[in-house]
Protein backbone atom coordinates (compact mmCIF):
# COMPACT_ATOMS: atom_id res chain seq x y z
CA UNK A 1 0.00 0.00 0.00
CA UNK A 2 1.44 3.35 -1.07
CA UNK A 3 1.99 6.29 1.28
CA UNK A 4 -1.08 8.52 1.47
CA UNK A 5 -1.07 12.15 0.43
CA UNK A 6 -1.57 13.20 4.06
CA UNK A 7 1.46 11.17 5.14
CA UNK A 8 3.58 12.69 2.39
CA UNK A 9 2.59 16.21 3.41
CA UNK A 10 3.27 15.43 7.06
CA UNK A 11 6.74 14.06 6.30
CA UNK A 12 7.56 16.99 4.03
CA UNK A 13 6.51 19.37 6.80
CA UNK A 14 8.62 17.46 9.34
CA UNK A 15 11.65 17.57 7.04
CA UNK A 16 11.20 21.30 6.47
CA UNK A 17 11.10 22.04 10.20
CA UNK A 18 13.28 19.16 11.37
CA UNK A 19 15.55 21.33 13.55
CA UNK A 20 12.62 22.99 15.30
CA UNK A 21 10.90 19.65 15.86
CA UNK A 22 14.13 18.22 17.23
CA UNK A 23 14.49 21.15 19.65
CA UNK A 24 10.89 20.81 20.83
CA UNK A 25 11.20 17.05 21.38
CA UNK A 26 14.52 17.40 23.21
CA UNK A 27 13.05 20.16 25.38
CA UNK A 28 10.08 17.99 26.33
CA UNK A 29 12.33 15.04 27.14
CA UNK A 30 14.59 17.38 29.11
CA UNK A 31 11.60 18.52 31.17
CA UNK A 32 10.53 14.93 31.81
CA UNK A 33 14.04 13.84 32.86
CA UNK A 34 14.18 16.68 35.36
CA UNK A 35 10.67 15.98 36.62
CA UNK A 36 11.77 12.41 37.36
CA UNK A 37 14.35 13.74 39.84
CA UNK A 38 11.95 15.99 41.72
CA UNK A 39 11.82 13.85 44.90
CA UNK A 40 15.56 13.24 45.25
CA UNK A 41 16.71 14.87 48.49
CA UNK A 42 20.31 16.01 48.65
CA UNK A 43 22.19 16.82 51.83
CA UNK A 44 22.39 20.49 50.79
CA UNK A 45 18.64 20.61 50.25
CA UNK A 46 17.83 19.18 53.68
CA UNK A 47 20.56 20.89 55.71
CA UNK A 48 20.81 24.26 53.92
CA UNK A 49 18.39 25.28 51.19
CA UNK A 50 15.06 24.31 52.77
CA UNK A 51 15.98 25.71 56.22
CA UNK A 52 17.06 28.97 54.53
CA UNK A 53 13.74 29.08 52.68
CA UNK A 54 11.80 28.57 55.93
CA UNK A 55 13.85 31.15 57.81
CA UNK A 56 13.34 33.79 55.11
CA UNK A 57 9.62 32.97 54.87
CA UNK A 58 9.17 33.28 58.64
CA UNK A 59 11.33 36.41 58.71
CA UNK A 60 8.94 38.33 56.47
CA UNK A 61 10.06 37.21 52.99
CA UNK A 62 11.70 40.24 51.31
CA UNK A 63 11.93 41.94 54.72
CA UNK A 64 14.15 39.07 55.88
CA UNK A 65 16.89 40.31 53.54
CA UNK A 66 18.01 42.77 56.19
CA UNK A 67 19.98 39.93 57.82
CA UNK A 68 22.19 37.16 56.39
CA UNK A 69 20.59 33.75 55.98
CA UNK A 70 22.95 30.94 55.01
CA UNK A 71 26.32 31.48 53.39
CA UNK A 72 25.33 32.30 49.79
CA UNK A 73 25.55 35.89 48.66
CA UNK A 74 22.82 38.48 48.78
CA UNK A 75 21.62 37.97 45.19
CA UNK A 76 20.73 34.30 45.71
CA UNK A 77 19.21 35.14 49.08
CA UNK A 78 17.07 37.69 47.24
CA UNK A 79 16.00 34.99 44.77
CA UNK A 80 15.00 32.77 47.71
CA UNK A 81 12.96 35.64 49.18
CA UNK A 82 10.98 35.92 45.95
CA UNK A 83 10.61 32.13 45.80
CA UNK A 84 8.81 32.20 49.14
CA UNK A 85 5.85 33.93 47.45
CA UNK A 86 5.14 30.71 45.55
CA UNK A 87 3.03 28.10 47.32
CA UNK A 88 4.14 24.49 47.51
CA UNK A 89 7.04 22.27 48.50
CA UNK A 90 10.16 24.42 48.81
CA UNK A 91 12.32 21.64 47.35
CA UNK A 92 10.26 21.67 44.15
CA UNK A 93 10.48 25.46 44.00
CA UNK A 94 14.29 25.41 44.33
CA UNK A 95 14.63 22.73 41.69
CA UNK A 96 12.23 24.42 39.27
CA UNK A 97 14.19 27.66 39.57
CA UNK A 98 17.51 25.93 38.87
CA UNK A 99 16.09 23.83 36.02
CA UNK A 100 14.77 26.91 34.24
CA UNK A 101 18.39 28.03 34.05
CA UNK A 102 19.40 24.61 32.71
CA UNK A 103 17.36 25.40 29.60
CA UNK A 104 18.59 28.99 29.45
CA UNK A 105 22.19 27.76 29.74
CA UNK A 106 21.66 25.22 26.94
CA UNK A 107 20.12 27.96 24.78
CA UNK A 108 22.91 30.40 25.64
CA UNK A 109 25.67 27.91 24.80
CA UNK A 110 23.99 26.99 21.51
CA UNK A 111 23.48 30.66 20.60
CA UNK A 112 27.09 31.60 21.43
CA UNK A 113 28.74 28.77 19.52
CA UNK A 114 26.42 29.06 16.52
CA UNK A 115 26.84 32.81 16.23
CA UNK A 116 30.60 32.91 16.83
CA UNK A 117 31.17 29.99 14.44
CA UNK A 118 29.20 31.82 11.75
CA UNK A 119 26.64 29.04 11.35
CA UNK A 120 22.90 29.27 10.68
CA UNK A 121 20.97 30.12 13.84
CA UNK A 122 18.60 27.35 15.01
CA UNK A 123 20.23 24.99 12.52
CA UNK A 124 21.98 21.66 13.08
CA UNK A 125 24.82 23.00 15.22
CA UNK A 126 22.43 24.93 17.45
CA UNK A 127 20.24 21.85 17.97
CA UNK A 128 23.21 19.60 18.79
CA UNK A 129 24.84 22.00 21.26
CA UNK A 130 21.50 22.71 22.96
CA UNK A 131 20.85 19.00 23.38
CA UNK A 132 24.38 18.17 24.55
CA UNK A 133 24.29 20.80 27.31
CA UNK A 134 20.73 19.96 28.34
CA UNK A 135 21.51 16.28 28.87
CA UNK A 136 25.02 16.56 30.26
CA UNK A 137 24.87 14.31 33.38
CA UNK A 138 26.18 16.96 35.75
CA UNK A 139 23.73 19.56 34.40
CA UNK A 140 20.77 17.24 35.01
CA UNK A 141 22.02 16.08 38.42
CA UNK A 142 23.00 19.56 39.62
CA UNK A 143 19.58 21.16 39.31
CA UNK A 144 16.99 18.38 39.18
CA UNK A 145 18.54 16.09 41.80
CA UNK A 146 20.82 18.26 43.90
CA UNK A 147 18.75 21.44 43.73
CA UNK A 148 21.89 23.54 43.29
CA UNK A 149 22.32 26.72 41.25
CA UNK A 150 25.49 26.22 39.21
CA UNK A 151 23.64 26.56 35.90
CA UNK A 152 22.78 30.13 36.89
CA UNK A 153 26.24 31.62 37.33
CA UNK A 154 27.58 29.47 34.47
CA UNK A 155 24.99 31.02 32.14
CA UNK A 156 26.36 34.47 33.00
CA UNK A 157 29.92 33.23 32.48
CA UNK A 158 28.91 32.06 29.00
CA UNK A 159 27.33 35.46 28.29
CA UNK A 160 30.49 37.16 29.55
CA UNK A 161 32.65 35.10 27.19
CA UNK A 162 30.25 35.63 24.29
CA UNK A 163 30.24 39.42 24.54
CA UNK A 164 33.94 39.60 25.33
CA UNK A 165 34.67 37.78 22.06
CA UNK A 166 32.21 40.06 20.22
CA UNK A 167 34.08 43.05 21.73
CA UNK A 168 30.94 44.35 23.38
CA UNK A 169 32.87 44.96 26.54
CA UNK A 170 30.32 46.80 28.68
CA UNK A 171 27.84 43.93 28.32
CA UNK A 172 30.59 41.40 29.02
CA UNK A 173 31.59 43.02 32.29
CA UNK A 174 27.98 43.56 33.35
CA UNK A 175 27.36 39.83 33.00
CA UNK A 176 30.62 39.06 34.79
CA UNK A 177 29.39 41.13 37.72
CA UNK A 178 26.09 39.21 37.76
CA UNK A 179 27.98 35.90 37.64
CA UNK A 180 29.94 36.99 40.72
CA UNK A 181 26.68 38.04 42.34
CA UNK A 182 25.46 34.44 42.22
CA UNK A 183 28.64 32.51 42.98
CA UNK A 184 32.20 33.39 43.93
CA UNK A 185 33.32 30.52 41.65
CA UNK A 186 33.00 32.91 38.72
CA UNK A 187 36.56 33.79 39.79
CA UNK A 188 37.71 30.73 37.81
CA UNK A 189 37.49 32.73 34.56
CA UNK A 190 39.03 35.88 36.01
CA UNK A 191 42.66 34.86 35.17
CA UNK A 192 41.58 34.45 31.55
CA UNK A 193 39.83 37.83 31.45
CA UNK A 194 42.93 39.50 32.89
CA UNK A 195 45.11 37.73 30.33
CA UNK A 196 42.73 38.75 27.55
CA UNK A 197 43.08 42.36 28.68
CA UNK A 198 46.86 42.20 28.22
CA UNK A 199 46.59 40.21 24.99
CA UNK A 200 44.02 42.27 23.08
CA UNK A 201 44.55 45.75 24.54
CA UNK A 202 41.08 46.69 23.32
CA UNK A 203 39.39 47.67 26.58
CA UNK A 204 40.34 49.71 29.62
CA UNK A 205 41.13 48.23 32.99
CA UNK A 206 38.30 50.44 34.27
CA UNK A 207 35.91 47.87 32.75
CA UNK A 208 36.61 45.65 35.75
CA UNK A 209 35.08 48.43 37.82
CA UNK A 210 31.80 47.85 35.96
CA UNK A 211 31.78 44.26 37.21
CA UNK A 212 32.47 45.39 40.77
CA UNK A 213 29.66 47.97 40.58
CA UNK A 214 27.19 45.48 39.09
CA UNK A 215 28.16 42.90 41.71
CA UNK A 216 27.48 45.46 44.43
CA UNK A 217 24.16 46.47 42.82
CA UNK A 218 22.94 42.86 42.96
CA UNK A 219 22.33 43.57 46.64
CA UNK A 220 20.05 46.56 46.00
CA UNK A 221 16.84 44.88 47.25
CA UNK A 222 18.59 43.89 50.46
CA UNK A 223 20.09 47.36 50.89
CA UNK A 224 16.59 48.84 50.74
CA UNK A 225 15.65 46.51 53.59
CA UNK A 226 18.51 47.88 55.70
CA UNK A 227 21.31 45.51 54.80
CA UNK A 228 24.91 46.73 55.20
CA UNK A 229 26.31 48.23 51.99
CA UNK A 230 29.51 46.17 52.20
CA UNK A 231 27.81 42.85 52.95
CA UNK A 232 28.18 41.37 49.42
CA UNK A 233 31.96 41.75 49.76
CA UNK A 234 32.07 40.52 53.38
CA UNK A 235 30.16 37.33 52.55
CA UNK A 236 32.75 36.24 50.01
CA UNK A 237 35.58 37.20 52.36
CA UNK A 238 34.02 34.93 54.99
CA UNK A 239 33.49 32.11 52.49
CA UNK A 240 37.25 31.84 51.95
CA UNK A 241 37.52 30.74 55.59
CA UNK A 242 34.61 28.29 55.57
CA UNK A 243 36.15 25.13 54.10
CA UNK A 244 39.61 24.48 55.49
CA UNK A 245 40.42 21.49 53.32
CA UNK A 246 42.79 21.12 50.39
CA UNK A 247 40.14 19.32 48.34
CA UNK A 248 36.51 18.32 48.75
CA UNK A 249 35.26 15.46 46.57
CA UNK A 250 37.24 16.59 43.52
CA UNK A 251 40.22 14.91 41.76
CA UNK A 252 42.56 17.68 42.90
CA UNK A 253 46.33 17.64 42.55
CA UNK A 254 46.45 17.84 46.35
CA UNK A 255 45.10 14.32 46.73
CA UNK A 256 48.64 13.31 45.73
CA UNK A 257 50.33 15.58 48.28
CA UNK A 258 48.02 15.51 51.28
CA UNK A 259 45.17 17.31 53.00
CA UNK A 260 47.19 19.47 55.40
CA UNK A 261 45.34 22.74 54.76
CA UNK A 262 47.25 24.76 57.34
CA UNK A 263 50.65 24.03 55.82
CA UNK A 264 49.77 23.63 52.14
CA UNK A 265 47.22 26.40 51.55
CA UNK A 266 49.70 29.21 50.86
CA UNK A 267 51.85 27.02 48.64
CA UNK A 268 48.74 25.96 46.65
CA UNK A 269 47.63 29.53 46.03
CA UNK A 270 51.14 30.62 45.04
CA UNK A 271 51.59 27.61 42.73
CA UNK A 272 48.30 28.44 41.00
CA UNK A 273 49.33 32.07 40.56
CA UNK A 274 52.67 30.98 39.10
CA UNK A 275 50.97 28.64 36.61
CA UNK A 276 48.48 31.32 35.58
CA UNK A 277 51.41 33.72 35.26
CA UNK A 278 53.14 31.27 32.95
CA UNK A 279 49.93 31.13 30.93
CA UNK A 280 49.88 34.92 30.69
CA UNK A 281 53.56 34.92 29.67
CA UNK A 282 52.83 32.37 26.92
CA UNK A 283 50.00 34.56 25.62
CA UNK A 284 51.99 37.80 25.70
CA UNK A 285 54.96 36.17 23.92
CA UNK A 286 52.55 34.59 21.42
CA UNK A 287 53.56 31.04 22.32
CA UNK A 288 49.83 30.68 22.93
CA UNK A 289 47.67 32.53 20.46
CA UNK A 290 44.10 33.77 20.84
CA UNK A 291 43.19 34.62 17.26
CA UNK A 292 40.15 32.43 16.62
CA UNK A 293 37.22 30.88 18.47
CA UNK A 294 38.97 27.58 19.17
CA UNK A 295 42.00 29.28 20.69
CA UNK A 296 39.74 31.58 22.66
CA UNK A 297 37.72 28.78 24.25
CA UNK A 298 40.63 26.42 24.87
CA UNK A 299 42.47 29.24 26.67
CA UNK A 300 39.48 29.89 28.93
CA UNK A 301 39.25 26.16 29.63
CA UNK A 302 42.97 25.95 30.44
CA UNK A 303 42.85 28.72 33.03
CA UNK A 304 39.71 27.29 34.66
CA UNK A 305 41.16 23.76 34.72
CA UNK A 306 44.44 25.01 36.19
CA UNK A 307 42.63 26.76 39.02
CA UNK A 308 40.47 23.71 39.73
CA UNK A 309 43.47 21.40 39.89
CA UNK A 310 45.80 23.46 42.03
CA UNK A 311 43.79 25.83 44.22
CA UNK A 312 42.87 24.64 47.73
CA UNK A 313 39.31 24.10 48.98
CA UNK A 314 37.89 23.24 45.57
CA UNK A 315 34.56 21.34 45.48
CA UNK A 316 33.15 18.91 42.92
CA UNK A 317 30.53 21.38 41.65
CA UNK A 318 33.19 23.91 40.69
CA UNK A 319 34.03 21.77 37.62
CA UNK A 320 30.62 22.63 36.14
CA UNK A 321 31.78 25.49 33.83
CA UNK A 322 34.88 23.53 32.76
CA UNK A 323 32.77 20.56 31.65
CA UNK A 324 30.61 22.91 29.58
CA UNK A 325 33.63 24.59 27.96
CA UNK A 326 35.35 21.32 27.07
CA UNK A 327 32.14 19.98 25.57
CA UNK A 328 31.69 23.13 23.46
CA UNK A 329 35.24 22.67 22.15
CA UNK A 330 34.22 19.22 20.86
CA UNK A 331 31.89 20.95 18.41
CA UNK A 332 34.86 22.84 17.04
CA UNK A 333 37.28 19.90 16.83
CA UNK A 334 36.99 16.24 17.82
CA UNK A 335 40.48 16.25 19.36
CA UNK A 336 38.90 17.75 22.49
CA UNK A 337 36.59 14.78 22.98
CA UNK A 338 39.10 12.85 25.11
CA UNK A 339 39.54 15.77 27.50
CA UNK A 340 35.80 16.38 27.77
CA UNK A 341 35.23 12.67 28.42
CA UNK A 342 37.78 12.56 31.26
CA UNK A 343 36.45 15.71 32.90
CA UNK A 344 32.75 14.85 32.57
CA UNK A 345 33.17 11.22 33.71
CA UNK A 346 35.14 12.26 36.80
CA UNK A 347 32.63 15.03 37.54
CA UNK A 348 29.79 12.51 37.26
CA UNK A 349 31.61 10.21 39.70
CA UNK A 350 31.89 13.02 42.24
CA UNK A 351 28.18 13.83 41.90
CA UNK A 352 27.37 10.15 42.29
CA UNK A 353 29.34 10.00 45.51
CA UNK A 354 27.59 12.97 47.05
CA UNK A 355 24.08 12.14 45.85
CA UNK A 356 24.05 8.34 45.80
CA UNK A 357 27.05 7.20 47.84
CA UNK A 358 28.91 5.45 45.02
CA UNK A 359 32.34 5.81 46.66
CA UNK A 360 34.61 8.75 47.49
CA UNK A 361 36.80 10.30 44.79
CA UNK A 362 39.92 10.45 46.94
CA UNK A 363 41.59 7.69 44.95
CA UNK A 364 45.03 8.86 43.80
CA UNK A 365 44.42 7.37 40.35
CA UNK A 366 41.52 9.76 39.80
CA UNK A 367 43.83 12.69 40.51
CA UNK A 368 46.59 11.23 38.33
CA UNK A 369 44.21 10.76 35.38
CA UNK A 370 42.88 14.30 35.79
CA UNK A 371 46.42 15.72 36.05
CA UNK A 372 47.65 13.82 32.99
CA UNK A 373 44.62 14.99 30.98
CA UNK A 374 45.33 18.60 31.99
CA UNK A 375 49.04 18.26 31.15
CA UNK A 376 48.30 16.76 27.74
CA UNK A 377 45.66 19.42 27.10
CA UNK A 378 48.28 22.08 27.96
CA UNK A 379 50.81 20.55 25.59
CA UNK A 380 48.25 20.18 22.79
CA UNK A 381 46.90 23.73 22.83
CA UNK A 382 50.38 25.26 22.88
CA UNK A 383 52.21 22.97 20.47
CA UNK A 384 49.66 21.75 17.98
CA UNK A 385 48.21 23.70 15.11
CA UNK A 386 45.01 25.31 16.40
CA UNK A 387 43.40 25.53 12.96
CA UNK A 388 40.24 23.44 12.70
CA UNK A 389 39.28 21.26 9.77
CA UNK A 390 35.56 21.39 9.17
CA UNK A 391 35.17 17.62 8.87
CA UNK A 392 36.74 17.08 12.30
CA UNK A 393 34.06 18.91 14.26
CA UNK A 394 31.54 16.98 16.33
CA UNK A 395 28.77 18.54 14.26
CA UNK A 396 30.15 17.08 11.04
CA UNK A 397 30.95 13.76 12.71
CA UNK A 398 27.26 13.45 13.66
CA UNK A 399 26.28 14.56 10.14
CA UNK A 400 28.38 11.80 8.57
CA UNK A 401 27.13 9.19 11.02
From TrEMBL:
Keywords associated with the record: Glycosyltransferase, Membrane, Transferase, Transmembrane, Transmembrane helix
Chain ranges passing through the membrane: 20-37, 92-114, 121-139, 172-197, 203-224, 267-284, 296-315, 336-353
MF-aspect GO terms: glycosyltransferase activity
Presence of keyword Transmembrane: yes
Protein name: Mannosyltransferase related to Gpi18
Organism: [Clostridium] polysaccharolyticum
Organism ancestry: Bacteria, Bacillati, Bacillota, Clostridia, Lachnospirales
